[in-house]
Amino acid sequence: MSPAEENAIRSSARNGWLLSLPALVVLALAASGPLLIVVYYSFLTANDTGGVIRQFSTEGWRAIFLSYDIFEDRYTLADAHLTIFWRSVWLSLATTALTFVIGFPTAWFIATRPARQRAMWLFLITIPFWTNLLIRTFAINEVIRNEGILNTLLLWLGVIDQPLRIVYTETAVLIGMTYVYLPLMVLPLYATIERFDMRLLEASYDLYASRWTTLRRVILPIVKPGIIAGSILVFVPSLGAYVTPRILGGGKKMMIGNFIELQFLQGRNWPLGAALSVLLLIVVTAALLVYVKVANRDRSQGHG
After folding, report:
1. Measured distance CA(50)–CA(90) in Å, rounded
2. Residue 36: beta bridge partners?
3. Ordered per-residue pLDDT tens for the chain, 304 residues
4. Which residue in 1, 186, 200, 251 has the most C-beta neighbors within 10 A?
């Protein structure tokens, strides 16, 4: 390559960066700016009337794990905060597991239908996304409340003698989040299963493998990328869920999203709310990094 051609390539690359510079600046300000403000607020001092005092402090981060006992003049473990955080994590994991248990056979059913029918089934799966999340959550509430459809039907059938108390419990939150995020599990699984070579099932059965062995040793390893993608798509929004725990939990089964809102509006402890927001972002980022690592490992093994 001649020097003139090299200079032309460098000039083209430089011009490309200059043309994209305005978009990069806007992206940096819109994405990084608010995040940096939240991180900055997490290291300031809370104002008693709301807002912050421009004075460096780590009290917001310390308050996540420790609470100050004014009577004994010492710090104790913030059990309430840790309980809320643990509830958020385990409900998100349970939602991910439950959506997989329901979503995998659903995606398999759709992927094994005739090609002309798959579009209709996918259309039915995506219909809930046409409705606002708040309306969908109220719809679930109408189903599981004491005088709702579920209890009315069970009472009419004589299965129960008195209504089941489901609303305002962790079970209600789990049911609501599973319903809301189920399509996010089904779609990635369907995209992976659709490319599955069904001849591998015939080969497995020809080698006298049982259905369970075929599922465990043939199907699941091949559709693993879809499982990981669906799990991330469900786990991440579940961890920061706000509307569903607020309505179905009745304010009693608070998750970290509700707790953050409480600190900013009612508790007027902005540094604690900001620290909780950053902590939530760290957990979500860690989950995404695990997904990227596992996906890259599977991809390299596949090429090998």
Report:
1. 32
2. none
3. 566 666 666 666 666 667 777 877 887 777 788 888 899 999 999 887 778 889 999 888 998 888 877 777 778 888 888 899 899 999 999 999 999 999 999 999 999 988 888 889 988 888 888 888 888 899 999 999 888 889 899 898 888 888 888 889 999 999 999 999 999 999 999 999 998 888 888 888 888 888 889 888 888 888 988 998 899 999 999 998 999 999 998 877 889 999 999 898 888 889 999 999 999 889 888 888 887 777 777 666 654 4
4. 186
